Fold this protein.
Amino acid sequence: MSPNLKSTIQNPELGEYECLADLNLYDSPKCDRLATQAAARRHLRVISSVQDVQVCLCEDDYPGWLSLSDLSLLRPCTIPYQARSFSEAEIKKLLPEVIAFTQKAMQQTNYYLWGGTVGPNYDCSGLMQAAFASVGIWLPRDAYQQEGFTQPISLAQLQPGDLIFFGSSQKATHVGLYLGDDCYIHSSGKDQGRNGIGLDRLSEQADEVSQSYYRQLRGAGRVVKSYEPQKR
């Protein structure tokens, strides 16, 4: 372990790091259950390291714990992460690339991975975040956060590149990307969905998987801005 990394473990206020490789972040200090992933070159902050290494990803403010074995894959940042702003018009021009990212991801062998944001295996909101991040636009991490972040629209207003949300009356638990003609792409689980990235339809007359999600349809949202991290 380098001296810089060692000093930061002793004093987590020292700062921000760049990931040198794709990393797993976990939902507890036990580091036995995936919460999210950080692709190489993402930035994170160590926020606690008294006994365990708790971190927060800079691009989306998502918290998690890092395995001690992965500390060697961090490099201290010389330039802090700076969010880039996008106009609604700029985002609209980039949507074909966002859609293309999901379609290319679907062509690779993949399976549904809870917490997955790094290909080839994604969860639902991880695929959405990765697709938009591929063109520099950041969304919050989870489906319910993405629903709250987007501009609400009616189903009649749906355009390719909009997000569609599913779940209960209380909370969005699933998200897909609208492609047009009542079709959307998403990464769905093994029990209810397709165990990976696939296409489904907004219809009660479609197959069983599409019908199941259609019964959980909550609404839709349009991405009109890129996420800006909280000031610290």
About this structure: Residues 88-107 form the longest helix (20 residues). The mean pLDDT is 93.
